[in-house]
Specification:
By secondary structure, this protein is α+β, with helices and mostly antiparallel strands. It contains 9 helices and 19 strands. The longest helix is centred in the N-terminal third of the chain and has 16 residues.
Length: about 425
């Protein structure tokens, strides 16, 4: 059986007072005695079919410090897949390791029968072994802790650095379907990990250029970061994201999006730049608009402000694009100003719009004009937490967000 490719594992996470970013190393002594377990499950299916088009959702370890919101974010995407592609299967892989609950309880809570229990730490090697059975991979989504260099699968010694797994990733690339894609829902995954994955897999890959936070669905159809939520009560039903009203207790009211400010947490303070949306990278020969079509396809199943069917109108699709690109806040006009700013920049033709507070990084589909630079650890190898900064230039005419908007529309029109 061939070893395919993983995608998502990181070494991070940090306790913070004001915002919860997902990216800190496990430096405790407990990791010396740690051995995790991997569980896999099918979403709304009972028979595994390795020849079916398969959406792979990877939920990384919460390192026993976070709740199950990573897990719920993955479930919300899984529900979108089954609505839009009922003939596909969704394969969820996780070592949840949430606070106050064992892993089996997490799967039971959301009615996910375990297909397979692997009594090994969820490492990149285990990931590739498990997905090698699938013939057709339609998408891969990661939810969890990540750093500028890797993704975190298991709690300790389970970081996924694409450069270290290039042969396995290039094998997996042969199984990626037309218009497939990868999304990385975690901190700082756009600096190195997303571009590298896109290069080796030959598909669009989205990643963050700042921290990532959880967002909660609210009754006005929008999603808000925990500090910005508007409803006094936790929502009972999600009445906008899916084809029918669904109970939030099923894990369908949380998702992840980047912060609307520069990253400042475990690794350091990136005061010189960032972006407030998950940026797509297409680090390959973009023939026949493969990049833009994959990007648009990813948004068709993004848990958003409206439920898109298989043939949505362009106006409905734009609602999801703006939801992907623009942030909400306690200020109800914040989101609307972003939408208007993008539209006005396109109408003028210069595409210049300053959406991100501070310096908005200049990015194309290969990379961003920014490098994360860190001091080395005093003992051992690797970057030292708290020492990292961004090296970049001042971007006086930011156009990254408007070019991304136009790419989504180009992809949508090419798909239809």
């Amino acid at each position: 059986m061939k070893t395919a490719a993983l995608l998502l594992a990181a070494l991070l996470m940090a306790p913070l007072a004001q915002a919860r970013y997902f990216d800190q190393e496990d430096e405790s002594m407990n990791k010396l005695f740690y051995q995790g377990e991997l569980r896999t499950a099918l979403y709304q299916d009972f028979t595994l079919d390795t020849q079916k088009p398969t959406h792979i959702i990877v939920v990384g370890s919460a390192v026993k410090e976070d709740s199950d919101q990573f897990f719920q974010s993955g479930i919300a995407r899984a529900q979108k897949y089954k609505e839009l592609h009922p003939d596909h299967q969704v394969y969820l892989m996780s070592s949840p390791e949430v606070r106050g609950r064992d892993d089996q309880e997490v799967f039971d809570k959301y009615n996910l029968p375990v297909v397979k229990l692997v009594k090994e730490t969820f490492t990149p090697g285990v990931f590739f072994q498990e997905i090698a059975m699938f013939d057709k991979v339609a998408s891969i989504d990661f939810y969890g802790h990540s750093s500028p260099w890797s993704l975190k699968f298991g709690k300790s010694d389970a970081a996924f650095d694409p450069d270290a797994w290039e042969p396995a990733l290039r094998t997996l690339a042969k199984k990626m379907m037309s218009n497939s894609y990868v999304t990385l829902n975690g901190c700082n995954s756009g600096f190195n990990t997303a571009p590298a994955l896109s290069k080796f897999l030959g598909v669009p890959v989205s990643g963050a250029l700042t921290g990532s936070l959880f967002e909660l669905y609210q009754s006005d159809s929008h999603w808000y970061k925990e500090k910005d939520k508007r409803d006094e009560q936790f929502p009972q039903f999600n009445r906008h994201t899916f084809m029918t009203d669904l109970d939030c207790k099923l894990g369908l009211c949380w998702r992840m999006k980047p912060d609307r400010a520069n990253y400042s947490s475990y690794w350091g303070t990136f005061k010189d730049g960032g972006l407030s949306f998950y940026k797509f990278f297409c680090n390959f020969d973009n023939q026949n608009s493969r990049c833009e079509k994959g990007m648009a396809n990813a948004l068709m199943t993004f848990p958003s402000v409206t439920a898109l069917d298989s043939r949505p109108s362009e106006e409905d699709f734009k609602k999801v694009v703006f939801d992907w690109l623009c942030s909400t806040s306690k200020d109800s006009s914040y989101f609307n100003r972003c939408v208007e700013g993008i539209q006005n920049a396109v109408a003028r033709g210069d595409l210049v719009y300053q959406q991100h507070p501070g310096n908005a990084l200049n990015c194309d589909f290969r990379s961003c004009n920014a490098t994360v630079v860190c001091k080395k650890k005093l003992f051992g190898s690797g970057p030292r937490g708290g020492s990292c900064v961004i090296k970049t230039e001042v971007n006086s005419r930011p156009t990254t967000i408007t070019r991304e908007y136009l790419a989504f529309l180009k992809g949508f029109r090419a798909l239809n």
